[in-house]
Amino acid sequence: ARQRVNKIRAAQVIQAWFRGHRARKEYASVVKAVRVIQSYFKTKQQRTWFLKMKFCALTIQRRWRATLTARRIRHQFLETKKAAVKIQLAYIQAFLLEF
Fold first, then answer.
1. How far is CA 39 from the centre of its chain?
2. Residue 99, SS3 per DSSP
3. Which one Pfam family would you cite for this protein (predicted)?
């Protein structure tokens, strides 16, 4: 009877060790899966942030270029207007000198 009890206890110890080993292995597998999922999530989050920053940078660049173009066009317009006024003034002065 004592030998049977010892065998049962030995079997329980082995089973407990095996169950613990299996639980640790399963836990490690779950931790690995969680890390993979977190990695994918973080990657997606960072990509979304990067694309947003890229869009913002492109918007700023586009608007700045538009501002520079508008300034250049305005400057050209003012130079053309100034030249036209000079021509008109010269024409009027020449016309008035004839009379």
1. 16
2. coil
3. IQ
Half-sphere CA count of 23, side-chain side, radius 13 A: 6
Name the nearest CA neighbour of 73 among 65, 85, 62. Answer: 65
- Count CB-CB contacts under 10 A for residue 69: 10
Over residues 31-69, the pLDDT tens digits come to 999 999 999 999 999 999 999 999 999 999 999 999 999
- pTM for the whole structure: 0.61
Residue range 76-81: mean pLDDT, rounded = 98
Quick one: tokens of 18?
Answer: 């095996």
For residue 29, which of 41, 37, 13 has the smallest C-alpha distance? Answer: 37
